[in-house]
Design brief:
six-stranded antiparallel beta sheet, four-stranded antiparallel beta sheet, globular, 10 strands, alpha+beta
Amino acid sequence: MNAPLANYVEDSVVTRLRSILSASELIATVDHVPSQSDDRGEFTSSVSLPLPVPSGAEYSFTLYFSPEFQIHAHLLSAPAKFFWYMPFENAGYDSVPELNSAFLQAVSQITKNKTRIVQKHRFVWESFRCDWNSGSNWNRIYGLSYLRWFQYPQIRTKEHTYYSPAIVVPRH
């Protein structure tokens, strides 16, 4: 089901996202998924916003707002595989405005700049790190690791880098 994002997210976040994405209306995807905290067959709503995919990108980004704020990257050649994501858990922030600010800053970095995701093949872990390019330097956004038994993209070397152009061209 599709619905206006403003139905699910506070106005200040929606207003800032409209500014970042240069969009007048943001339509979210709402899916009802089994609740992970409940084994009684109850469902929760997953609210997400897929971002546009620029020409030449090797992956796409999706913003998640419920059950918690997250940013996911999906490898275009293997969308069902585990890849990069960044959680924004309430426990990691002193306040909701601080969490919102961190989320919006990360969204701004991944949409207005070239990004790369570096996958490293380790003995027990597969790690993924997302960086944004400031023009002269690569700056880390977030990194994570999965145990090797998860389904992640297979690479032929110890390290592989995926790239994406900026999603939104900054206004001057």
